[in-house]
Amino acid sequence: MGMEERIAANAEARKLQISSLPDFILKNPKNWPKDYLNLVLEQYQFLQKLGLKVPDWVKNSAIVGASIRNIEQSSSAQTAKTKFAHFSGKRALDLTGGFGIDSAQLARQFELLDYCEPHEDLNEIVQHNFEALHLHNVRFHKLRAEDFLDQTENKYDLIFLDPDRRPNTDKKMVSIEDCVPNLLEIEEQLLRIANTVLVKYSPMLDITFALQKLKRVSAIKLIAVKNEMKELLFQLGEISGAMEIECVNIENDETQRFCFSLEHEKSAQVTFSAPLKYLYEPNVALLKAGAFRTVSAEFGLGKIALNSHFYTSDSFLGHFPGRKFEILAVLSPQQKQLKSFKNRALNVIARNYPLKAETLKKKFGLKDGGDEYLIFTENAERRKIAVHAKRIFN
Fold first, then answer.
1. Predicted TM-score (pTM) of this structure
2. How far apart are CA 245 and CA 186, in angstroms?
3. pLDDT tens-place string over residues 294-337
4. In degrees rounded to 5, what are phi and psi of residue 205?
5. How far apart are CA 133 and CA 130, in angstroms?
6. Sheet harboring 89-94: ordered strands across?
7. What digits encode the pLDDT tens for the residues 213-223?
């Protein structure tokens, strides 16, 4: 399918209101040829997903979609702004351009952007979309990252890459070596032509393992949205002082930020405490980063147990970067102790506990919902406890 047909299919997709996709395919009310029907529906599904990630682009009727896989692997506008917030300059390079959401953000923050994408159709789509977005400071290259690096003589303020985690399969790859391009093979080449290199990897990648593989990590950034991990970023470049790890969680009404270093984490003093008046659960970015000791030391909080990663205090800490609860009771997790909660609407959390949340809900007849929680965990004496708490919203 050429670009003209794709544009026409996109225009048709924007008119559709489909309650059941299988029924629409079966009935094909417009009597479109099969290939064209598939193209319209691909555009329709793409626009649905794009609306969740970049609402402003969907409002622009000239924006055309690509394959569903392209948008599934793309950043959102929100995470793109967050990860590039501290970067600007004369020249940037996006080595793995894809659908271009990250590239568009870079083009707004740098005087000139080089965009690399070897797939001709996708390259053409992004060029079309960037014209519609009035982004005219971008040079497009139909090259693999490795080929572009072999040919370029340019120097860059920033190189960004998001290695493909599904190069030849639908299964997501996590390890650095399985991604394309393989950063371990081009790391030195990148650092010869750039002041800073920023690499996005799967949130599932083990940070300690990555630090053993990569040579010049100067900073790490973790981005979560509504307490769901979205991006794990390694910044490569000149190393000066302790490596900073920045944890960001974007909520509707606030953006939680917390910075620490691995050196501080190792030496931070932890105080253990039985549950007091308030309970705190770090957001997923902090938990992924492993800021367990630093959280206790920085905020002056007692840690309930070594491996539970819940914290407590007598006075309320409203700016804590995570969920906050008022403790209503601390119970023994026995059938008779929890009998009164049967069929009540509350939420269940299980951490450092032998049973999973779903199993506990079935065991005690619990239903999801409301602002109250039963938190199953272990205390400092390694005894199993159930904390009945009410969530506090800022």
1. 0.92
2. 24
3. 999 999 999 999 999 999 999 999 999 999 999 999 999 988 88
4. -65, 135
5. 5
6. 138-141, 110-116, 89-94, 156-161, 194-201, 228-237, 217-225, 244-250, 255-261
7. 998 999 999 99
